[in-house]
Model the fold of this input.
Amino acid sequence: MRIPCPYCGNRDSSEFSYRSDAAPVRPAADAPVAAFHDYVYLRDNPAGPISEHWYHAAGCRAWLVVTRDTRTHEISAAAIAQEFVR
Amino acid sequence: MRNALSGHKKWQPAWRDAAPREAYDIIIVGGGGHGLATAHYLASVHGITNVAVIEKGWIGGGNVGRNTTIVRANYLLEGNEPFYEWSLRLWEGLEQDLNYNAMMSQRGVLNLFHSDAQRDAAARRGNAMLLHGSDAELLDRDAVRKLAPFLNFDSARFPIEGGLLQRRGGSARHDAVAWGYARAASGRGVDIIQNCEVLGFLRDARGAVTGVETTRGAIRAGKVGIAVAGNSSRVAGMAGLRLPIESHVLQAFVSEALKPVIPGVITFGAAHFYISQSDKGGLVFGGDVDGYNSYAQRGNLPIVEDTCESAMALMPMIGRARLLRSWGGIMDMSMDGSPIIDRAPVDGLYVNAGWCYGGFKATPASGWCFAHLLATDRPHEVATAYRLDRFATGRIIDEKGQGPQPNLH
Done:
């Protein structure tokens, strides 16, 4: 797999660290425990397109949100995590 | 003998290729090792034979045919070791129970260690195994050299200091395990229905599961158990459940057939690498999961490179063997690295999932405990820790201490 890093261009996936599904959002500090349980442990685990965090450790060190199809490994988009619009 | 000498035309099928009936007492979704074992023990231990196993592909075509066939019970934690020791005992009597040659071979599993800290951890784990009635031996460097003289003992970076040996561990023939369970279950009246994919669950007015909608029509059931590791999130999702699981791809490799060179199963303690030799002679080995969510039954080259580097670091002689093929399977990687055998929070639905990449050795006990749960509605005593709600209650079973990051377990 090559990941199209917005800063560095197409780079091999071995330059990146993987940090899973980007969909879960940290609940507010006063949210009930059940909300934190969902956030930490439960996943949609889709068979199809997923937006996920990759960290370009051996490159620009930016966190990216990469959109990838889990059935084919095809990557359709990559954005800087801070600029990613959910 | 007569069948072998008559063009192989007179063999009887090992199990009936059943068509779905309208209703069953219990439906098991997933005709892999765990689903078939569950059906066998439902019939043979609990006397429940009005059971269907439904499989979207064919028997032996999923993860039960894609693993590296290792059988062991070398866990540390209280929630795990009694379960895996029970599994190993079932393995030891499996061929007599099924009247089928599963080629179970207790040739030993050796976990190497490369530092004082790793020796301490191995001794602690070995003691835990002994306390739970399993077997373990701590070997020093010379004892390992006797067992496996071909290892790289002179590595300056990862010197082999010794190993933790479980002599009762070993390997079995994965396909034969699936076929043996299928044959035994079918012989007791269980319907094994292939090419039958679940599309959804039938629910009653209260929301309880009352059957499954499939590509071969609706089938009603008193209880439905899912044993579809790799696809657990997808199937449970049809009942509105979200699971603490991610699907990841794990690759495995086999070399061309060689004369016997490797005595048992050997694992590298400095990187993730394990190897054994099949009865056909191929060196069967593997390493880490690729590390990203995947439902594609194939991996990528960085892990091929990583696995081969680990192999060369541990046993340089492997560099002369040629790779025959590699493949990938989809693992249910759970949030704490341990499995789930429990009732779902939906009436009538039962979950067997989250086997990470340790499902094969668990096959007999998984089937035994899932059958017990389905038949009695109570968890079996060696599987009480495998609760679905343990992530909410804090009773996680994190063998490696990695925290909720499935790709690291």
Q: What stands out?
A: The mean pLDDT of chain A is 96. Chain A touches chain B through 25 residues (CB under 8 Å). Helices of chain A lie at 33-41. The two ends of chain A are 24 Å apart (CA to CA).
